[in-house]
């Protein structure tokens, strides 16, 4: 029994060391920014594509903020996975009941399309299709909003 | 084992409730840091990714590598600041040594801005 407890303690300590150095690298869906972050949201590396800077200061801020959030979520998920491997699914579920759901469970699709930093272009104006008067149309069913 | 988990969960809930009540009074805790010339400003949360990163138009002249390095430097400063603010806010309801062990150390030198 003592040997089992000792083994478990060592496994837990090793897990703590592993979790402390867990990082994940994520590239933004637009391919212009890549972030390596820890599960605590710390930047470990940041690469900006020159083309991102050409999109303006606001776009840079938004894209980096979004990418570091995705990288942090990925690192948290990796930590959950490592914990489940080391301690078993049962313990991982117990931990989730205490600290809350893992990112995978809470966000099935973590990439949220952000608002465009540049204003959207006005849609092209097209002439309306001329209304063809139908002499057979029943006045009772006439719907001027339905005509195209 | 189940009893241990249940006890731990109960303790976490109790601390969570005390912390929630405390934070409800003090407001959300964030840390703010800026470059001296205002090129990069970061609003950080304790133990999470930066909430907001703002870059000035002039900062774009730093180039991709220079700007990336500056964002990382300011983000780290903002997060340290947020952690320090969390420590100060919660040290009345949570053992300060435990807060430090969790990575929320209290900064001695607070020459940067902060906000709650």
UniProtKB/TrEMBL annotation, chain A:
InterPro entries: YbaB-like_sf (IPR036894), YbaB/EbfC (IPR004401)
Protein name: YbaB/EbfC DNA-binding family protein
Highest taxon, organism lineage: Bacteria
Source organism: Lentzea aerocolonigenes
Source taxonomy: Bacteria, Bacillati, Actinomycetota, Actinomycetes, Pseudonocardiales
Gene3D superfamilies hit by this protein: Nucleoid-associated protein YbaB-like domain
UniProt cross-references to Pfam families, sorted A to Z: YbaB_DNA_bd
Residue ranges of the region described as Disordered: 110-148
GO molecular function: DNA binding
